[in-house]
Amino acid sequence: MSRIESTIKNITARGEKALIAYVMAGDPTLSETAQIVLEMEKAGADLIELGVPFSDPVADGPTIQKASERALRQGVTLRGVLDLVTLLRRQTKIPLILMTYSNPIYAFGLAAFFKEAKGAGVDGLIVPDLPREEAKEFLSLAKRHLIDLIFLVAPTTPAERAERIVKDSGGFVYYVSLTGITGAALTEKESIRARILKLKSMTDRPVAVGFGISTPEEAKEMGQAADGIIVGSALVKIIETAQNDPAYLSRLSGLVSSLKAAIRS
């Protein structure tokens, strides 16, 4: 069992739910991202999703798109993000998941990327524009290097395809609670819960829900069915204020703490 899966299962065994916190690597800077990750862990985050900046982030909403643009202006690359992971691994054992589009990986070189990601200490990988049907080489390399390749299931995913995705997803299954982009308003909560329970009936792996969760109340509601909650845009919005608000880290820690408290029981 991987570090990602065992971390989530150990948390759910205590009657809690896992908090997966997303941050864009390099926003506002790579060195501050390292500090942000450590602060979020201290505040209660159980796993960290590190976004890799990309010029055409089709699955992301305006908040994360702007964070990506800020990081790109800093000159942040996939190489720089891997170096950040290496740095973080000297200070923490928290599971680290890269969320990147396929283009930067192909530009880096597929085999080279997986080898270096493993060497840096990456635990998992989410590639939102990689369909499961086109992921054969990714799956092979991920298995060889013991990196969890985590797939997304959407509300519009047909049941038969969802079963195939769930079978191949490593670490956990990422349920996208909205059909649109990240950070939108959460609606139709009953149908979301029903779909999460259906996915859980297909697999022993944990199911985490993300896209659109921004408050402790929403986290608590979705946590009733899911094993983990993924929060991104709400955290990135606070980081966006870093230049003008010296206390942004304190506000960020406060939100992480309140999100974790909401799904603790």
From TrEMBL:
It catalyses: (1S,2R)-1-C-(indol-3-yl)glycerol 3-phosphate + L-serine = D-glyceraldehyde 3-phosphate + L-tryptophan + H2O. This is Tryptophan synthase alpha chain. The active site is at residues 49, 60. Belongs to the TrpA family. The gene is trpA. GO terms for cellular component: cytosol. It is an enzyme of class 4 (lyase). GO terms for molecular function: tryptophan synthase activity. Pfam families: Trp_syntA. It comes from the Bacteria. The keyword Lyase applies. Keywords: Amino-acid biosynthesis, Aromatic amino acid biosynthesis, Lyase, Tryptophan biosynthesis. Its EC number is 4.2.1.20. Tetramer of two alpha and two beta chains.
